[in-house]
Amino acid sequence: MRRSLLLRLFVLSALVAVASIAATAWLAARTTSGAIQQEQGQALADDGNIYRGLLKYAATHPNWHDVATEVRGTASITGRRIALTLTDGTPVFDSATDGRPLPLRPSIVVDPLQVDSGLGQETTADRIDPDAVGPYALPDADRTRLGALAQRVLRCVQARSGVGTVVTSPGGHPRIEGADPFVLSSCNGSTLSLPTKTEQAALDQLSTLVSACLNRGPEPKPLAQVQVLLDFTWVQKGVVRDAESNQAVQSCLSAARREQLTPFVAPAASLYLTAPGGEAPAGFTLSPENKVRLFEVAGGILLLTLLVTVLAGVRLIRPLRALTGAAKRMEGGESGAQVKVRGRDEIARLGTAFNAMSASRERLEETRKAMVSDIAHELRTPLSNIRGWLEATQDGISRLDDELVDSLLEEAVHLQHIVDDLQDLALADAGALRLHPEPVDAAHLLAQVVAAQSPAGVALSVEAPDALEVTADPVRLRQAVGNLVSNAVRYTPAGGAVVVRGRRDGDDVVIEVADTGAGIDAADLPHVFDRFWRADKARTRGTGGSGLGLAIVKKLAEAHGGAVAAASAPGQGSTFTLRLPAGTAAG
Fold this sequence. Notes:
Order of helices and strands: HHHEEEHEEHHEEHEHHHEHEEHEEHEE
Largest sheet: 5 strands, mixed
Strand content: 5-15%
Number of strands: 15
Structural class: alpha+beta
């Protein structure tokens, strides 16, 4: 029981409940001070709300003429006195009507071009209120047009990726957030980042102000011709950007934005806030009745906590015990043990992950058994031949002449070929297959591979342009193409043809090996690159091969950052396509 999760959860909950009760008793004695602090916090929150409301008004109006209608109701609800004056002392608004003098110092200055974060207002690096859009505010026609465009782009993005939302700036320009950049670009989302005529005119004006700022002074720096973009970043043509120039441009950009927005926002004003009237609450006293009530509440909390803990613990332990049982069954030899999954919580996700792991382990075990069987089969035939002939020679039945030596050597070479293929696949699986990329004349390499083949009765030809260069490991590329060509020759009957083509396709080099053989059934086509898979299900030596050549081609293509594919139709031959990046190769 000492290691029981349910017991530990029960004890922990009991300790939490006891600590909560103790804290409740202590807090009861401090209720008065807590109430005062709460009122202070509420007053601070009210001040912040008032400041943010006035700041938004100032950012969207060129003056304070109608501010009274905005704050009179707020003053009545909060019970606070709200007064505004310009920085020179000119009165703007005062919710008090009794003529009381204002405090000596204002609570804060309301200026949308110099936002103060003292009352919790979020601000940007240049401290300009985002609601201050001025000349960047879009007319209704542009808002309607861009809104419709944003909805079309959003539907396209969500159809392809399932995510994305439309966010509209204070100026009315929508954009798509949360979407993959590639998906957004494919859905024509880049058009939403282009400024409208209204925004471009404002940006041109801002760029002129920034350039003028940079060229002021006795020694103007060559920083002119700054073009400000829609997100208020900038570009400079012909100028090397460094920390000093960036700081100068950023300083001028902030100043230029304030100069541009000044006619569109209300002037800075001093805000005076006074606390509402009334006395502090009397607080909570620990009288005998209150003590009894406190103990009753504390006992109820303790009982409810323990009950909820037991119920939650039982529900938590049940699936964990099922997982433990399934794990023990797997330990005992059951490779595909599964558990029932209910709900969508963490335990359910753990059960789903366990089931997936168990199923994957079962598939891997089946694959391992099949691979061991295939390797044993591939090695058994040449080893049996070598052993049989050697025993026949030892018993005097056969004579070790040149023809027998050649036959035994052929079987040994076949064994070595299988071992080499297995080693290449093992290196590729371990990520240790090293490549030595260099510029390679693909057309010349294809001609060499074809010249090395000597098919009997099969016409073998090359079609490739003279200048077809690819960066790759020449040895590994020759091995991949050779495997494809030898595979095509092997399954092409006498009188057939095999054509090796090379061409450029955009940034890729494509090598195709097409034959006029019997073709591959559609059901078998997805398995042609599997290890030990062969079209000849009888696995006769007549069709040759170990079933590893195409698997090696796939690994070599992936190691070069490329891919290989197969297309075929029964009775019409097959085409294997090797696609590699022309300029780079994995190291």
